[in-house]
Amino acid sequence: MESRENCKKVADIFVKKGPFLKMYTAYITDFEETNRVFDDAIKKIPTFQQVVKEFEMSPRCASLGVRHYLLKPIQRIPQYKLLLQDYLKHLSPESEDYENTKIALHIVSEVADHANSSMRQGDQVQKMLEIQKSLEGQFEVIKPGRDLIKKGELMKLSRKEMQPRMFFLFNDVLLYTTPTPTGGYRLNNVLTLSGMKITLPASKEYNTEFNIVTVQRSFTVEASSEKDRDEWVTSLKNTIDDYTQRKNTFETVRAGNQMEQIYESFYDKDFVLGSKAPIWIPDARVTMCMLCTCEFSVAWRRHHCRSCGRVICSTCSDNRAPLEYLRNKPARVCNECFHTLKTDFNDKVETGNVTEGMREDIDGSVLSLSSIKERFQQIRRSARFSTKVKRPKRLIEVHANNLDCSMSGYLKVLKGKKWKKFWFLLKDKVLYKFKASEDVAAKESMAVIGYEVIKVSENFEGVAANLVFQLSHKNQSPFVFQTDNASSTDRWIKAMEEAVQG
């Protein structure tokens, strides 16, 4: 600045010193830790506290604290950027410092972006360190290239109830953990994003739920709200797509002509029996065997098919079959899956399509075809155990979770003076009543043509008027239904009014 009159330049200094400005990044990144150490030293070391106090009282500090000067380097780079921007506005293109100023502004902007990026990366590392400390289980959270995308609590739908689980979504894996009383998280599973699929339930009744399907484990989770569910679904799908694209690019560079195999590996959208863990249908949503329709009781227990996830009785699941996602470990499967899996395996053997990966054993060794075939086991019980129920055709022609329907969902129906909850489905002008939302046979069915739909105008049996509607016919007592909310009432009334028309 002293030679400003002879040399009308300032920006050339930034051009020369620009490469060294990135050294500030390390200071910026460690600033929080530096302040913590400084504060701890003042609290714990009286001598140091005295030295700092004397230093701050000296003329060179100009009545300012050391913390003020520690902050100066953090502020310096943004200030340089602002100063150069203002300086450039006051220069004409003919000025001898014009080009240098443009170059200097570019350099300082890069340094500022680099510092901001480093700070964000530092925040990421700090968050991941906190996760590592709270995690109970063998998993290295911090890994080169790994970023935390989203974390949060979701309710996992287990066989009998909803249970809280903490999920951590990284750009390569999804951690599935259980909160512990100590405030930490017990690691349940590390789910790779490779081949992961996110789906929504078929019924709109479960508008806060979504399904996570992976090779290792598949299950249903529930978010706190529909908005939270949509945010999780979007984050998961975007992260899966990004991961797939990165892997796809890497494999393309490595293998070149193997794109068809990669496409099948990462873009396979169809569920194949035995290749991926199925989503288990919760016990509470099924009251009967999904094959023979016998009703479950305390003595007649539910079982899950490890291949398709359906709920079946013991008679319909007296089979063991090797499953690929379990590394060919024999597992309980339903009669239908047993037949399908065995037929598919025999077809692959005949055509020579059984790959080495399909023959992998639990310990990583390769099984012989005869060993795999021996793992298909069917137990034949006495006929006295058979409980197959004969039901009218009209009650088994529609599944409770049928997609091709006008309306479906839980409703309470008034029986005497008590409300009883059932799953109702309206299809082809027929109203089907089920005990639960995944039952394969209806309890009753009723053609609604000729009925009158009545919206209640006053509170009914202690229930708000906007939650009640009736189906009335001149030859019998009206059917009274109760919904969970007013919008559901309106949708049911609209669907019923369309159905009752001849």
From TrEMBL:
The keyword RNA-binding does not apply. The keyword Zinc-finger applies. Gene3D superfamilies: Dbl homology (DH) domain, Pleckstrin-homology domain (PH domain)/Phosphotyrosine-binding domain (PTB), Zinc/RING finger domain, C3HC4 (zinc finger). Residues 1-118 form the DH domain. One of its GO terms (molecular function) is guanyl-nucleotide exchange factor activity. It is found in: Cytoplasm, Cytoskeleton. Keywords: Cytoplasm, Cytoskeleton, Guanine-nucleotide releasing factor, Metal-binding, Zinc, Zinc-finger. Its main location: cytoplasm. Residues 283-342 form the FYVE-type domain. GO terms for cellular component: cytoplasm; cytoskeleton. Residues 147-241, 404-501 form the PH domain. PANTHER family: FACIOGENITAL DYSPLASIA PROTEIN (PTHR12673), PROTEIN CBG10230 (PTHR12673:SF267). This is FYVE, RhoGEF and PH domain containing 5/6. It comes from Mytilus galloprovincialis (Mediterranean mussel).
